[in-house]
Design a protein that fits this description.
alpha/beta
């Protein structure tokens, strides 16, 4: 991230300007990923029932104008699978013409030539593609659709060659932890950068089987001692807050018009079918409560010795513990174990409290956590 962009993001955080918005344009999806945070996609009833309630094209176009008026610069269309939403290219055109940079969050399996040509012509600047293994057996079993791996890799390659800024998103899973290095090599061979995320949350429907896919402490330790060593998070020395950007420079909009502090933190803060975005953003009691939280309001975090190494996501914590400012005690969420592992590896590598705050630069195809 360049210095100018860092300053811009910091200014947005301080002034509560929603420059980063994730917009669910549908909950429909052609895959059945085992960790999906929307709902358990083994339950066929939910997508069919919800489809009738999703925002109309006219509502989405109106909302795009409203979020741009409040300062949105970086817009991510997500789902479900965003490419399944009819009218997506019109939404992209509208957003780009209004001055927003558009990223599409996708599983990549629908990126045929015509689709890639349409999103390029519409002006999408980036594509974030989820990949769950280095070979078909692992990926296809996880998304529960045969042939998905080959379509995803080919789609990502096609979009990359068409000039779209493509990035792979790798989720560390019990099923793919032994393939992390091979996944990194696959991305490097395609010339596509990637990021790696170890966080999995319970689903928005309350089901918890998604957590069965998480790795254990031993596996996380092995990975960050090994192939993921360049991605060990930077230390945030003297960290005076554990607030993330939720409800400040980041927000989410659901497929039904609910405004969330973050797309992964499903705390309804107002509905855009009933109120304009401006009124919700500035007057929602929920969003204002989040902005006013201080370090002392986070019971387990305020005295935690691993805080400088923590990559806390309030959305993940909320889903897993039921508390936005949780957990109530250290160890009450998997995130606590992750911070402890990162802290120990950093101390072993760099010598404890005298460790540098900034690590050696990772390879150019790696995007730090």
């Amino acid at each position: 991230m360049g210095a100018h962009l860092v300053r811009l993001q910091n200014q947005a955080f301080e002034q509560c300007i929603p420059i980063n918005v994730s917009f669910e344009v549908t909950l429909r999806c052609n895959l059945k990923c085992a960790h999906c945070y929307n709902f358990d996609r083994g339950l066929a009833y939910f997508p069919d029932r919800s489809r009738e309630e999703e925002l109309t094209d006219a509502e989405i176009h109106r909302i795009l104008d409203e979020i741009r008026a409040e300062g949105c610069l970086f817009l991510s269309f997500t789902g479900g699978e965003a490419l399944l939403r009819p009218g997506l290219t019109q939404f992209i055109c509208h957003a780009v013409e209004a001055g927003m940079a558009v990223t599409i969050k996708s599983n990549g399996s629908l990126l045929g030539k015509e689709t890639v040509d349409r999103i390029v012509d519409a002006g999408a600047s980036a594509l974030d593609v989820s990949l769950y293994g280095s070979e078909p057996g692992t990926h296809d079993a996880f998304v529960q659709i045969p042939g998905a791996f080959c379509r995803t890799v080919e789609g990502a390659r096609r979009a990359h060659e068409a000039g779209v800024r493509v990035r792979f998103s790798f989720l560390i899973l019990r099923q793919n932890s032994h393939q992390m290095e091979a996944m990194m090599e696959l991305a490097a061979g395609l010339g596509i950068p990637y990021n790696v995320d170890p966080q999995i949350s319970t689903r928005h429907d309350g089901s918890r089987s998604s957590l069965d896919n998480r790795v254990d402490r031993e596996t996380l330790d092995r990975l960050f001692h090994g192939p993921l060593r360049p991605l060990l998070p930077r230390v945030q020395e003297g960290r005076a807050t554990v607030q993330c950007s939720c409800a400040r420079s980041v927000c989410g909009i659901s497929a039904f018009g609910e405004v969330y502090p973050y797309i992964g933190a499903p705390v309804p803060s107002g509905n855009l079918r009933r109120s304009p975005f401006h009124d919700i953003w500035w007057n929602s009691g929920t969003l204002r409560w989040i902005r006013d939280l201080r370090l002392e309001d986070f019971p387990a975090c305020r005295s935690c010795t691993h805080r400088d190494h923590c990559r806390r996501s309030s959305g993940v914590i909320l889903n897993n513990t039921g508390l936005y400012n949780g957990p109530e005690v250290f160890g009450g969420d998997w995130t606590c174990m992750q911070a402890e592992v990162f802290h120990r590896i950093h101390d072993e590598t760099y010598g404890g409290k005298d460790a540098p705050a900034v690590h050696p630069k990772p390879p150019s195809d790696v995007l730090p956590l």
